[in-house]
Task: structure prediction
Amino acid sequence: MSASKKSFFLFWCLTAALILALAAGCSRHRVPPPETPPQPKGAPKPYTVLGRTYQPLATAQGYSERGQASWYGPNFHGRRTSNGETYDMEAMTAAHKTLPLNTWVEVTNLKNGRIAKVRINDRGPFVDGRIIDLSKAAARELGVLGPGTAPVDVVALGFRKPGTGVAGRPAQYQPPASYEKGLFTVQVGAFTNEANARRLAASLSQKWPQVAVVRFDRGDAVFFRVRVGKLGMLTEAKDLQARLRSAGLAEAFAVAW
Result:
């Protein structure tokens, strides 16, 4: 081999070695992903289960609700959760209908005073009167495993800061923006036929204030939602929801406007 060819061959060998070394260095120093995904931006799309449409909320700060907790376990173990994870019934997680996914909440069993912190990674429970579905591990810690349900207080903590809550480091949470204050309404029905929605709205407007029909294009279908009221507080929307249900509108539920 000539001297010029040897020099050219040596140059490319050194270049290749340098590229491999840089690649190895990058792989060793790659930043690990956070324990939970970052807070999503904007309100997520609504979803429909058993004929009822739910509007997940983009924020959760100040969220506090009292109701019945239940739990789900073996029949769902290993299935995909709403945030894309695989459900592990021995992890401290839970399902909620509207709180932002990956929000941490503090759950207090009002019967025995036990407290547990769980992360919302799934949707549910789709049963009236129940506000949270606990994993088996969370239910065990709270003393809900045997009775199956229990009255609880649920308080939103926020999104856990990466690197906390592990290796002896106390958990720290980043609260999202206010959930209790905002613009709320109560949805009493959703129709694919606009005329049906208009008829219901006309009937309701004789007794209830601020009745509106809101068009929503889901992509595969267009719905006309009948909504009652425009309220500035979640508590006011929950009160209106209760009054509408008492008036025979069993499907009424509070949503963010």
The chain is about 20% helix and 35% strand. Confidence is low (pLDDT under 50) at residues 18-42.
